[in-house]
């Protein structure tokens, strides 16, 4: 796969929808995880209602759907540690970082120290992130 | 090379156009397609927001989507270019990446 | 230029499938290459041969099949999304114990890796969705 082409592209996955009201959150996460095997330079961005995907304490028993939020914790295991959450989107929704899942990754260059994967940035900073990508997928 | 942004919803249905304009860097291009083409029409409550972005951004609208919705090109906000699908392809080729705001 | 096309919505429900088709056709007319068209989410429903839309309007699946045939396009339906929504080829029919299959000519079912690979190999990736 990657070894043949040698190409490493900057992939950005943008999420703007809340979970469960539609399948976009779940199925986009599936793309991110499958894509991890291709060793590209991956960033995942949560804007607008997308920030709700990372809300901790999701209990779906009453709606009869599978709670897939634990799957976000696997991102770190696949070296996906550039998880951007927009500050303004959180504020508009009355959320803080305390409301979000604790997503971490182990930095093998730093004695496998566990570090947070979520980076809360302003819209202005995220605009810079957006500008520096090769492939941008929206769902 | 700058980015090409596409927006496919009206600014009345969804915040995608507003979101796009707030995250499109100076000099990048925006193409309004599908229902999003209606955001290019003058005389709406969103006209000033879109007009303000003309100049800073290169804004285009997909002509076939306007025509489908009964909008004459004469009603398009000044400074917005009208392109067809071939023009859409050219815009995609001329920009480094495409960001589809849904 | 090589394009990868991602279609996230089913035929008729949203304009995405039409926009993707029109873009793909225009790109081919301009001499560009379409590396792959990948169908995800409800987009997999573009790949059923069982649709019978009214005769006085476009037949979206047939348009894709014909374009694929004319230009040798690779139309790929995501296997996971297809399983969820019941778009089935012969292999999937046997694998999952179904009594029928419905994949349209020119489409094949494969994994999400095909989408990522298309993104890596193409010069531009276009997303059409809701």
Topology, element by element:
The complex is a heterotrimer of chains A (139), B (102) and C (130).
Chain A: H1 2-5, E1 10-15, H2 24-35, E2 41-46, E3 83-86, H3 87-92, E4 104-107, E5 113-116, E6 118-121, H4 123-131, E7 135-138
Parallel strand pairs in A: 1-2, 1-7, 2-3, 3-6
Antiparallel strand pairs in A: 4-5
Chain B: E1 4-7, H1 16-23, E2 29-32, H2 47-53, E3 58-62, H3 63-68, E4 81-83, H4 85-94, E5 98-101
Parallel strand pairs in B: 1-2, 1-5, 2-3, 3-4
Chain C: E1 2-7, H1 16-29, E2 33-39, H2 60-71, E3 75-78, H3 79-85, H4 90-95, E4 107-110, H5 113-121, E5 124-128
Parallel strand pairs in C: 1-2, 1-5, 2-3, 3-4
Please explain how this structure is put together.
The complex is a heterotrimer of chains A (139), B (102) and C (130). Chain A has helices at 2-5, 24-35, 87-92, 123-131, and strands at 10-15, 41-46, 83-86, 104-107, 113-116, 118-121, 135-138. With 139 residues, chain A is α/β, with parallel strands linked by helices. Chain A has a single domain, classed as DsrEFH-like (Hypothetical Protein Ychn, Chain: A). In chain A, the strands form two sheets. Chain A has a five-stranded parallel sheet. Chain A has a two-stranded antiparallel sheet with strand order 4-5. In chain A, a hairpin with a 5-residue loop joins strand 4 and strand 5. The two termini of chain A are 24 Å apart. The mean pLDDT of chain A is 96. By secondary structure, chain B is of the alpha/beta class. Chain B has a single domain (4-101), classed as 3-Layer(aba) Sandwich (Hypothetical Protein Ychn, Chain: A). Helix content of chain B is 30%, strand content 20%. A five-stranded parallel sheet of chain B has the order 4-3-2-1-5. The mean pLDDT of chain B is 98. Chain C is α/β, with parallel strands linked by helices and 130 residues long. Chain C has a five-stranded parallel sheet, with helices on both faces. Chain C is globular. Classes of the chains: A alpha/beta (139), B alpha/beta (102), C alpha/beta (130). Chain A binds chain C through residues 1-2, 5, 7, 9, 11, 23-24, 27, 30-31, 34-35, 37-38, 40, 135-139, and chain C through 6, 8, 40-41, 80-81, 111-113, 115-117, 119-121, 125, 127, 129.
């Amino acid at each position: 796969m990657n070894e043949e082409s040698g190409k490493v592209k900057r992939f950005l996955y943008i999420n703007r929808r809340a979970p469960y009201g539609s399948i976009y959150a779940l199925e986009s996460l599936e793309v991110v995880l499958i894509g991890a095997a291709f060793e590209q330079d991956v960033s995942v961005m949560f804007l607008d209602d997308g920030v709700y995907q990372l809300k901790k304490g999701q209990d779906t028993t009453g709606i009869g759907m599978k709670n897939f939020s634990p799957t976000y914790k696997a991102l770190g295991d696949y070296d996906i540690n550039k998880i951007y959450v927009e500050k303004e989107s959180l504020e508009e929704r009355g959320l803080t970082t305390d409301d979000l899942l604790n997503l971490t990754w182990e930095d093998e260059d730093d004695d496998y120290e566990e570090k947070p994967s979520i980076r809360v940035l302003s819209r202005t900073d995220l605009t810079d992130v957006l500008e520096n990508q090769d492939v941008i997928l929206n769902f | 090379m700058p980015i090409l942004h596409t927006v496919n919803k009206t600014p009345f249905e969804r915040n995608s156009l507003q979101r796009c304009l707030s995250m499109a860097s100076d000099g990048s291009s925006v193409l309004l397609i599908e229902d999003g083409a209606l955001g290019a029409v003058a005389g709406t409550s969103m006209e000033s927001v879109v007009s303000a972005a003309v100049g800073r951004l290169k804004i285009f609208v997909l002509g076939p989507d306007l025509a489908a919705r009964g909008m004459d090109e004469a009603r398009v906000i000044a400074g917005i270019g009208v392109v067809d699908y071939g023009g859409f392809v050219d815009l995609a080729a001329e920009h480094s990446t495409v960001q589809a705001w849904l | 230029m090589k394009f990868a096309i991602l279609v996230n919505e089913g035929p008729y429900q949203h304009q995405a499938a039409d926009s993707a088709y029109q873009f793909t056709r225009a790109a081919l007319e301009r001499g560009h290459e379409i590396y792959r068209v990948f169908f995800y989410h409800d987009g997999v429903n573009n790949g059923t041969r069982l649709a019978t839309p009214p005769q006085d309007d476009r037949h979206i699946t047939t348009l894709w099949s014909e374009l694929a045939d004319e230009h040798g396009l690779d139309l790929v339906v995501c296997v996971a999304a297809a399983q969820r929504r019941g778009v089935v080829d012969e292999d999937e029919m046997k694998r999952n114990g179904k009594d029928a299959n419905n994949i349209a000519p020119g489409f094949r079912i494969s994994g999400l890796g095909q989408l990522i690979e298309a993104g890596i190999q193409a010069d531009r990736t276009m997303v059409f969705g809701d």
